[in-house]
Design brief:
Elements lengths: L15 E5 L5 E5 L4 H8 L1 H6 E8 L2 E5 L9 E7 L5 H22 L4 E4 L2 E2 L2 E7 L9 H13 L4 E7 H11 L2 H9 L4 E7 L8 E3 L13 E11 L8 E10 L2 H16 L2 H7 L3 E3 L8 E3 L1 H20 L3 E2 L5 E3 H7 L13 E2 L2 H18 L2 H22 L11 H12 L4 E4 L4 H8 L11 E10 L15 E11 L1 H21 L6 E6 L11 H18 L4 E4 L8 E7 L5 E10 L1 H5 L4 E2 L5 E2 L2 E6 L4 H12 L12 E5 L5 H13 L4 E4 L5 H10 L4 E5 L1 H6 L2 E5 L4 E5 L1 H14 L8
The structure holds one RNA strand of 75 nucleotides.
Length: 738
RNA sequence: GCCGACAUAGCUCAAUGGUAGAGCACAGCUUUCGUAAAGCUGAGGUUCAGGGUUCGACUCCCUGUGUCGGCUCCA
């Protein structure tokens, strides 16, 4: 028994901690025990495999170092060196980031470390370094990392009181670390040394946790280097961001890298070109897709499907133009608030065009400094005086005013100029449809739909194939309803959105409720309206039974929304379908219906687009199916390939029969051998390839092959057509077989 | 928009300041072929556009356009 200094027997208040394990068992360990102690008490094998603990106490879960004493009774899971466990990988990759940073610092002594977190599929480290790191440097970095790993150095945590630590950081003089430390919470700061030798081994300010030793980091790869800015601020210091990944096992790394290679082959930009689905033309303009006939076939099938479903649900189709008067968008709030995100307005009068030009010049000059700015200001003044001579003075505009005032006056002058805007959204036009007649509550809900093309001036760096474009087609509809009808209509639209994803086998989506950010001023409408709209959206999400996350600041400017988000083949997330509840635009446009009380009421609008954008949706779909569309969507469903010229007549006869049966069919009479012919047709992702030669002609049969290389067998034409029709109706089942 | 890289035949890529080339695809011919690539021949180029340096530019410099990877943004 330990004794107190006074020699009195110690009264032991607490000897044991209760630790609940994932299997439900509870074990007791000594006070001060660590996750490693718990692992050891369960088994030495587990202790060897352990890399961290996942501890829950007071409903808070955190991942902790193996060596950290447990704070009291808790739940604890031991994280082991498993590539299957995202938590284990998270810790591993955090540690790998430290090793990468050490390697980079050794090779580039000038490098200043900024921030190096684990991310979804690996880690990155932001570094300030004037010299560019290039892919040619990656093998050197990896070799240096390998050396560090082979030294089997432990990760050792050190804590210091905040003030003491800050002194040390200031001595080091790395502004980023000082900044990070200042933003860290708590009265202590922690550091991790990669090794046992404080002072000589690599050390980084870090909250942890880390794996016990570099030896655990068995498989890693530096993959990419790119640019970023400190704290994401483009005006702050430019940094180099080195991306890497790490796994516990080499096989897992290899599998991951192979998967990335495979994913690249699914890229819709490559498949879209190879299969002749769409092109992007430099002559037409960035972000403006040209749908080729085969791509348009896919799109038309999707549109027909959705249209049929909408008609069943009581929607009606409308068609509206792609531009509209500026006044419309002033009322809606799109113009000039979102001016930067729109194609420039087309002003009608010379005066309007001149003011627009002067404003654009003034805005550009405002960003300049020094003599360049002085020259610019002179040019702006010259434009203004020329305008005065031509059309008279612009109200409030003085020659000697500072540039910001001039910009404000030009803006004000532009506000009364007439012109047109390429529409960024369809809703104002659909509101025009609503306003075509007086409406009664008996007309509601009114559901109007249009595959409407809209144009947005996306930043040039954002454009990406069909997935992020400047001109796109929304499968847009607007529902106008009474408050009583709202909940039911929102729920129905949510169901429709899920239905279209799932009919295409797209189950891997997440649902996000976008709410208003109270701190932002980008929203229109009253807090009461917002509260009602957000409640309606929330209720629909709950009733639909989906898992969802709620995110502030993701609402549309007129209302909250439910977004369906999917990933492309290289892991980027994109919004597809959306459902939005809007109390505000009806108010802004003064919409009304006559209620049963014979008084006017303001309807509520629902904006919804299950595909979102046809361009983006088809892009994602190309990647999802790797170009091998289910038969109902395929641009070419069947190919007839003749063995030789001797079978040409029979081939033509089969082709005509299939075409008359409504199948999309291609005839290949070329003089190649059947091997290369099949190869070409399979590469074109045609669902079924019918080989026809003298034998088939004699027996009046088809030799049916699929695009995966399987020979299905011989069938009669009638049986084949029947199976195809069945497969088309099923929207995804395989029905052709013998 | 910012940072960086890139732009050569339809596609993938060569050509280091001195006559722009290959494979695949395409066209013609030969072959009439039985299930993952037959042979020969041919055509195809304002080397993204415009300007500059140079005796001479695909190559070096500037500007613009576009593409890619990030950042930032996405009503």
């Amino acid at each position: 028994m330990r004794c107190l200094p006074h020699g009195q027997p110690q009264i032991i208040r607490r000897l044991l901690l209760k630790v609940q394990l994932p299997d439900g068992n509870e074990i007791e360990v000594a006070d001060g025990a660590t996750a490693l102690d718990v692992a050891s008490s369960i088994g030495s094998g587990l202790a060897r495999a352990a890399i961290a603990g996942k501890m829950t106490k007071d409903d808070r879960t955190e991942i902790v170092d193996l060596q950290k004493p447990l704070p009291g009774d808790c739940e604890l899971a031991i994280l082991t060196a498993s590539d299957e466990d995202p938590d284990s990988l998270y810790v591993l990759r955090h540690s790998a980031a430290h090793v990468a940073a050490e390697a980079i610092c050794k090779l580039f002594p000038e490098a200043k470390l900024v921030y190096g977190p684990p991310v979804e599929n690996g880690f990155y480290y932001d570094i300030e370094l004037s010299q560019s790191i290039t892919p040619e440097d990656f093998p050197r970095i990896e070799a240096e990392m390998k050396r560090i790993v082979q030294e089997k150095r432990p990760f050792c945590r050190h804590e210091a009181p905040r003030e003491e630590a800050m002194v040390k950081l200031r001595d080091e003089g790395n502004r980023y670390k000082i900044d990070n430390a200042e933003r860290a919470e708590g009265d202590k700061l922690s550091f991790y040394v990669t090794g046992e030798n404080v002072g000589s081994n690599f050390e980084d300010l870090c909250i942890g946790p880390h794996v016990p030793s570099t030896a655990v980091i068995k498989a890693f790869k530096i993959r990419q280097v790119s640019r970023s800015h400190y704290r994401g601020d483009v005006n702050d210091t430019p940094l180099q961001r080195v991306y890497g990944t790490a796994f516990f096992k080499k096989d897992s790394l290899d599998a991951y890298l192979t998967q990335l290679e495979e994913a690249k082959k699914r890229d819709h930009r490559v498949i879209g070109r190879d299969l002749g689905l769409f092109v992007m033309s430099e002559q037409v303009g960035a972000g403006l897709a040209l749908w080729l006939p085969k791509g348009m076939t896919v799109r038309t099938q999707l549109q027909n499907y959705l249209t049929d479903e909408m008609i069943k649900l009581g929607y009606e189709l409308v068609c509206t133009p792609q531009i509209g008067q500026l006044g419309l968008y002033r009322t809606s709030g799109h113009y000039p608030y979102y001016e930067d995100s729109q194609y420039p307005a087309m002003f009608e009068s010379d005066r309007g065009k001149a003011i627009q030009s002067a404003l654009q010049l003034a805005q550009r000059v405002e960003a300049d400094r020094g003599s360049e700015r002085k020259r610019g200001e002179v040019a702006v003044q010259a434009m203004i005086s020329a305008m005065r001579q031509a059309w008279g003075a612009i109200e409030g505009l003085r020659d000697d005013a500072p540039l910001p005032d001039t910009i404000e006056r030009l803006y004000a002058a532009l506000a009364s100029e007439q012109g047109y805007l390429l529409r960024p959204m369809n809703c104002p036009h659909h509101i025009g449809v609503y306003m075509a007649h007086p409406r009664s509550y008996r007309d509601l809900p009114m559901r109007i739909a249009e595959f409407g093309m809209v144009y947005r001036w996306e930043q040039s760096g954002e454009l990406s194939g069909m997935i992020r474009v400047r001109g796109f087609t929304q499968d847009d509809a607007h529902l106008f309803c009474t408050p009583d009808q709202l909940a039911h209509e929102v729920l129905t639209t949510v169901k429709l959105s899920r239905q279209v994803l799932e009919v295409l086998n797209l189950y891997d989506y997440r649902v996000r409720i976008g709410l208003r950010d109270l701190a932002s001023d980008k929203y229109v409408g009253s807090p009461e309206n917002w509260a009602k709209a957000e409640a309606a959206i929330h209720q629909a999400a709950v009733e639909s039974g989906m898992n969802f996350s709620e995110e502030k600041g993701e609402a549309a400017f007129y209302g909250p929304k439910i977004d369906f988000i999917v990933k492309d083949c290289i892991g980027r997330s994109w919004q597809l379908g959306t459902v939005q509840v809007d109390y505000n635009l009806p108010e802004r446009f003064g919409l009304s219906y006559i209620g049963p009380d014979n008084a006017p009421h303001v309807p509520i609008m629902i904006h919804r687009a299950p595909f979102g954008s046809m361009e983006r949706f088809v892009g994602i779909l190309i990647e999802h199916f790797a170009g091998a569309f289910p038969m109902w969507l395929s641009p070419v469903q069947v190919a007839v390939a003749t063995i030789s010229e001797k079978s040409e007549a029979y081939g033509r006869q089969i082709y005509d029969t299939l075409k008359n049966a409504g199948l999309r069919v291609e005839l290949d009479l070329s003089s190649e051998k059947i091997g290369p012919k099949k190869h070409r047709l399979r590469t074109a992702k045609i669902n079924y390839i019918l080989v026809v030669g003298e034998k088939e002609a004699q027996d009046n049969l088809l030799n049916v092959n699929d695009r995966d290389g399987r020979t299905i067998g011989n069938m009669t034409v009638g049986a084949f057509i029947g199976a195809c029709q069945q497969e088309i109706v099923s929207k995804g089942d395989t029905c052709v077989g013998v």
